[in-house]
Amino acid sequence: MADWAVFDVDGTLLPGTSMEKEFSKYLLRCRVIRFTSLFSFLLEGFGNLLNGQGLYGLKRSKKYLKGIPVSLIEQKSIWFFNNKIWPTISIEGLNTTKQYQKNGCKILLMSGSPDFLTNQLANKLEADFAIACNLDIKGETYSGSVNGFHPYGEQKKNLLLNAKDKLDIEFEKSTVFANHHTDVIHMELFGKPVAVNPTTTLRKIALEREWEIRHWGSDAS
Question: Class of 4-214 per CATH?
Answer without folding.
Answer: alpha beta
